[in-house]
Amino acid sequence: QVQLVESGGGLVPAGGSLTLSCAATGSILTIKSMAWYRQAPGKQRELVASITSGGSTNYADSVKGRFTISIAKPTVFLQMNSLKPEDTAVYFCHGWVVAPTLNDYWGQGTQVTVSS
After folding, report:
1. pLDDT tens digit string along 14-71?
2. Whole-angstrom Cα distance, residue 25 to residue 75?
3. Residue 6 in contact with residue 29, Cβ under 8 Å?
4. Most buried one in 19, 38, 68, 75, CB count within 10 A?
5. Mind listing the pLDDT tens digit for each residue in 49-64?
6. What is the C-alpha to C-alpha distance for residues 112 and 89, in angstroms, rounded to an integer?
7. Strands 75-80 and 67-72, sheet pairing
C-alpha cells in the first residue's frame, strides 16, 4: 500500500519561508510525477506545482518566482519563500506511482498559515 506522508507545515509571518516534504512509502516500482495542491477555506483545491520524474516542473502563476518544487525520490519538496497571507491553506501532496500498476495517491494534508 502506497502512502504519501507530508511534513513541514506551520505558522510563519508574511515574508517568511517554509519547506514542505512528502515522502512516498510502500512497494513502489517507480514514481511518474508528484505535485503539491492547496485548498484554502471555502475555495477549491488548486495545483501549486508539479514535477515529473524527468525533472520538468510547472507552477501556478500565483507562486512563480517564490516557490520551488524538487524531487529526490521518493521524496518531493516544496520550498516556499516570500510567503503571503493568501498562501494560507492546507497543502496536499499528490503522486502518480507505479506500485505495481499506475495509480494516483494523495497525502493527508499539512496546514500552512501565513500571518500578516
Report:
1. 999 999 999 999 999 999 999 999 999 999 999 999 999 999 999 999 999 999 999 9
2. 9
3. no
4. 38
5. 999 999 999 999 999 9
6. 6
7. antiparallel
